[in-house]
Amino acid sequence: MSDTPIDSGTRCQALGPELTIAQASEVQQRLLPLLLNEPPADLSLDLSQVQEFDSAGIQLLLATRRSLQAQGQQLHLVQPSSVVRAALSCYGLDAALMPMKPSLETAEESQP
Fold first, then answer.
1. Strand partners, 52
2. Which residues neighbour 27 within 8 Å (Cβ) at sequence distance 6 or greater?
3. Alpha helix locations (H) across the chain?
4. Residue-averaged pLDDT of the chain
5. What is the DSSP letter of 99?
6. What are phi and psi of 6, to 5 degrees?
7. What's the pLDDT at 23?
8. What is the value of pTM for the model shown?
9. What percent of the chain has pLDDT over 90?
10. 42, 74, 83, 87: most buried by Cβ count inside 10 Å?
């Protein structure tokens, strides 16, 4: 996982290849500093490399979104893999957690 600032209002974190119950606690600990970021910033999660994803991964995304919203910030999903998209759709959460930024490169290129 790497933490990459896109701009002063957004940070990007790559996750994967697994985002399951076995990794949920570890990933949560890695995301906590980004949620406590001063000043608060939006968070983009690059999910393009996620190959295994379960309900614990969904719970982590929802909790992250809720924490960011409490600070007036947003969660953006960047290039979620087909596994992530299928799980979100299966749980009816694709509308809640998307639209997504099309890619990291596009997000970075759109910056002045």
1. 18
2. 1, 15, 19, 60
3. 21-35, 55-70, 82-90, 94-97, 104-109
4. 84
5. -
6. -90, -45
7. 95
8. 0.80
9. 68
10. 87
